[in-house]
Amino acid sequence: MSSAENSSPHVLLTGANGFVASHILAILINRGYTVTATVRSQGKAEDVMKTHPSWKNKVKFVIVADFTSAKPFDHLFESPKTPYSYVIHTASPLKFQVSDIRKEMIEPAEKGTTEILKTAHQHGGTALKRFVLLGSAVSMLNSFEDMSKEGKPYTEKDWNPVTAEQAVDRNDPVLGYNVSKTRAEAAAWKFMKQNTTSFDLAVINPDIIIGPMIHPISGPQSINETNHFAIASFIDGTHKEIDGVTFPFYHFVDVRDVARSHVDALENSSAANQRIILISGLISPQLVVNSICKNFPALADRVPKGNPSQILPPGVHPTGWDMRVSLGILADGTKEGKWEYIGLEKSVIDTVESMIKNSVI
Ligand SMILES: NC(=O)c1ccc[n+]([C@@H]2O[C@H](COP(=O)([O-])OP(=O)(O)OC[C@H]3O[C@@H](n4cnc5c(N)ncnc54)[C@H](OP(=O)(O)O)[C@@H]3O)[C@@H](O)[C@H]2O)c1
């Protein structure tokens, strides 16, 4: 790395090979940050570099194999020539095929967050200004929301009441995921309350994330969980019809907006100590197939048509979100002073195009 690059602020990014983090890494590199990035193995670092040869010498990879091991992050802070100015923590389990909800979802999510915060506090020094946590709207909404009627819109003050016992007793991985994100975020705020740190915390809470994929792809199994259930599953034969198909949540945001919000949040003073809701608008199985059929006639015979005017599944009335406070913070983080979301149709088009380009559908 040249000395010029080294003089730019240094960011530590976790889980860099993931769907969302790949976009964050692309923006960090593009905006000239010095980046150290974690992945779980050397092979995964090599996959990122094979996918993005132009990132050579622009990112340094460090391996963190297991969040539940002793002091998993200490070695990251021992050797950097330039201390970190910022941490963006994204790595957390998001696969619904698990056999042990506590061990595979809840523990790594919570432990990963608390351990990196502890290490950042103990070894990060005074250069470290901000810790940005990729949270989730599932730590704000209520997993047991009554979908038969629209409730009071959620705000940044809401917390999901779901418990680990409920997820484990029902053997429900979506609930397990909701618990993992809620507990990880709650642990982060508790840590900040109990310690006087040199850095502050900003948590970004997106709902279902879809969008083009720039992470390493080696076949259909590389489609990330949410792009699969929200989009690919309507093309790859998983759903033969729309009747009876439901989503766990009915709001979405495009991955490019998620990535941009994280990098903007590094230097946005309004983001300090905030939870930030990140939602573009409504998503439903019918809205997704409507967009695919309209824009990809060649795929139409593989995609169930449903009833194009019945936008939400019968009886489903999802509660909305009051995003006024979050929109103000997001706007403050932009050069233009204005935050605009990518809409559903563009997001679906770009996602399907990226699936076609990668030959995964
Ligand atoms: N996609 C969404 O709709 C959505 C919505 C809200 C929030 N989020 C959050 O966004 C973040 C990234 O999600 P994504 O959609 O990009 O999923 P993803 O592609 O599956 O990325 C997850 C990343 O976390 C790493 N990871 C998973 N389990 C881990 C563990 N036990 N120890 C260490 N690293 C682990 C993965 O590493 P490997 O590749 O080695 O498994 C990968 O780098 C997560 O925090 C997720 O909760 C996602």
From TrEMBL:
Domain of life: Eukaryota
Molecular function in Gene Ontology: oxidoreductase activity, acting on the CH-OH group of donors, NAD or NADP as acceptor
Short name of any one Pfam family annotated for the protein: Epimerase
InterPro entries the UniProt entry points to: Epimerase_deHydtase (IPR001509), NAD(P)-bd_dom_sf (IPR036291), NAD(P)_dehydrat-like (IPR050425)
Keywords attached to this entry: Oxidoreductase
NAD-dependent epimerase/dehydratase domain span: 11-277
UniProt family annotation: Belongs to the NAD(P)-dependent epimerase/dehydratase family. Dihydroflavonol-4-reductase subfamily.
Protein name: NAD dependent epimerase/dehydratase
Upper lineage: Eukaryota, Fungi, Dikarya, Ascomycota, Pezizomycotina
